[in-house]
Amino acid sequence: MDDMLHVCSRLPEYFKSHPLESPSSPTHNPYSWTYGMEGQDWIKVVGRSPEKLRKFAIGISGKWSTVPAVGIYPFDTELAPLSATCQRQNRVLVVDVGASQGGTMKEIRQAFPRLTGRIITQDLARVVDHVPAGYLPPELDIHPTVHDFWTPQPVRNAQDPLFDEKISSDDESGLADRDVVCRTILRHNVDAMGPDSRLLIAEVLVPDRVQKEELYCYWMDLTVLTFAGRERSEADWRDLFESVGLALVKVWRAEVGTQAVVEGRLRR
């Protein structure tokens, strides 16, 4: 938070020397500029400090109160009945892409004991190597693995590929445009989906009309703008999904606020 407030405080200065438009480059954005590293991906800027990177990993691996792991998508009714079938077929139940230390899957597994079946969490080696010993006990059947989501998804035909954090310009892609970045990440996972796989993305959803009752989504939009991200509306997600061969089949919304889980399946 202190990092983002510092960057946000310099936005007026940034826009005096840059186009007055939403940044879309993972290497040319307010975050990288603020720390004197314009031209470098923002995650590399964070990575200069091992301690800051460690705190960042912990911060996104635990219970993210803004998009809770449980309470929006009904894992118990939607996935638990499929658990036994997945086990018989030696099929992975859930692949959590960009899972950090696996905190979301741990919380879901503990909340829904009927949800049996193998769960794979994926992140970069610098994150996976720092999962604390004993954090994911064997009985949870959660397996942290090293995977870079700029490469093809190695787990084929999983029941549910899941993104439990931001799909935006948040890694070393070398790509220049935010939407190209998103499509690249998604296509790798779409290519690995089976006919009945579903792709879930937990996100803050921008309302179709600006309203004042729930301001958090606009704060998040401003926050991710600093590193060339943006929050999306339902229409934005539909367009993005269609561009990679997915159909947006349902938006699972929280009872209060703008948190949601967006569900996509292969277009037929």
UniProtKB/TrEMBL annotation:
Domain of life: Eukaryota
GO biological process per UniProt: methylation
Gene Ontology molecular functions: O-methyltransferase activity
Keywords: Methyltransferase, S-adenosyl-L-methionine, Transferase
Protein's recorded name: O-methyltransferase C-terminal domain-containing protein
Phylogenetic lineage: Eukaryota, Fungi, Dikarya, Ascomycota, Pezizomycotina
Organism: Letharia lupina
Matches recorded under Pfam families: Methyltransf_2
InterPro entries xrefs: COMT-like, COMT_C, SAM-dependent_MTases_sf
Domain O-methyltransferase C-terminal, first and last residues per copy: 29-245
